[in-house]
Write a structure and sequence with these properties.
alpha/beta, Heat Shock Protein 90, Rossmann fold, 5-stranded mixed sheet, 10 helices, 12 strands, 20% strand, elongated
Length: 373
């Protein structure tokens, strides 16, 4: 009995150590990637007028970093948590992004033809769905053997489903292997492949309540057909307030972080989104800075020498009207009790979209008159 209890405790402690280690690694990598991602957003704004091609290449880098972060963050969660958080996803945009990401893999003798309907939307996880199409396009490229060929990508509405068809005229799959291609670790690429790509694709599509099929003929080519439940356009309700900028000259924002790079980048993005005066400081000098100036919004990191939540409680006890936001890559570390005084949580890496959502929430809470801004 003692031995059994000891084993359970050891196992439990091991799991805690692994979870803590995972959270720490995710937090540290988020901190490394966040300045890079935010810097790309700022650079894109500056160079777009002069060179749209460079801006397009930066989009690819930005997408890859965002997907890396999303996969990292998902490593902390259960499968149920990952797939319960669905957004409205435009399939045309997802496919176009996937073609851009895979562009460097195929040479000039491979042409990708696309016929994509515009208003095709599904409920889903954009990172996961993009992973599906990147995987399938890469497989199509691998099957070409260097000859001059065409990959066709079509999307259309079929009753209550969005259908995406990816066709290639490559080597094809033999009838003896066609039923095995979604089996984990099965591959016909020998040393080139791991055999997990298509099994991951099937898992993702299944979780999105969709279906994936394959049709193939040896030496003729292969078609992958994906069906996902459609979302009616009328169900999509995005508020127009996200397009309005705060122009209240009295609004001041303070960014607090012990990392100078993150501090600078977040302050730059906040200034762009809020169109307000934005300053930055270390956690040690935060209280002194707040006493000198009448700040409306504070954006503070969570894991600092001074804990972000403790700083929030301290400041809120003296300045109750301040809107306090916490930045973190590990929301799990903030318990419900600690969230009492926190007005908003920004998940790292922070981007313009998140700050715009925070701005909209701030507007709602403070009942600001949008028309006067």
């Amino acid at each position: 009995m003692k031995n059994s209890t000891f084993k359970k405790e050891t196992c439990s402690n091991t799991n805690l150590d692994v979870n803590s280690c995972t959270l720490r690694v995710v937090h540290d990598i988020n901190n490394i990637l966040m300045p890079a991602l935010n810097a790309i957003e700022l650079i894109k704004d500056k160079i777009y007028k002069f060179d749209a091609n460079i801006s397009s290449e930066l989009n690819i880098i930005e997408l890859c970093i965002k997907d890396t972060v999303s996969i990292l963050n998902n490593s902390k969660k259960s499968v149920k948590e990952i797939y319960n958080k669905n957004d409205i996803v435009n399939i045309k945009k997802i496919i176009e992004d996937s073609i851009l990401i895979t562009k460097s893999k195929y040479s000039q003798n491979i042409l990708v033809e696309k016929q994509l309907e515009k208003d095709l939307n599904v409920l889903g996880n954009s990172t996961e769905l993009r992973e599906v199409f990147v995987n399938i396009i890469n497989n199509a490229v691998d099957s070409m053997s260097g000859k001059e060929v065409v990959i066709k990508v079509n999307s259309y509405r079929e009753q209550d489903y969005i259908v995406v068809k990816v066709e290639d005229c490559g080597l094809g799959i033999g009838s003896d292997n066609i039923d095995k291609i979604f089996t984990p670790f099965f591959t016909t690429k020998k040393s080139k492949g791991t055999g997990i790509g298509l099994s991951i694709c099937k898992d993702i599509i299944d979780k999105h309540r969709g279906e994936i099929f394959v049709e193939s003929e040896k030496y003729i080519g292969t078609s992958f057909i994906i069906k996902l439940p459609a979302v009616e356009k009328e169900l999509i309700t995005n508020e127009n307030i996200e397009n309005n900028y705060i122009r209240d000259k009295g609004l001041k924002i303070l960014v607090i972080d012990d990392n100078i790079n993150i501090r600078f980048i977040v302050a730059s993005l906040a200034k762009k989104v809020f169109n307000a005066e934005v300053k930055e400081c270390t956690p040690e000098s935060a209280e002194e800075e707040i006493e000198k100036n009448n700040y409306s919004i504070l954006i503070s990191d969570f894991l600092m020498p001074i804990n972000g939540v403790e700083l929030c409680n301290k400041i809120k006890s003296r300045f109750k009207d301040i809107y306090f936001c916490i930045m973190t890559g590990c929301v799990e570390l903030i318990n419900d009790k600690d969230k009492d005084n926190v007005d908003y949580i920004l998940k790292k890496p922070i981007d313009i979209k998140q700050l715009e959502e925070m701005k909209n929430e701030y507007i709602k809470i403070n009942r600001l008159d949008i028309k006067e801004m």
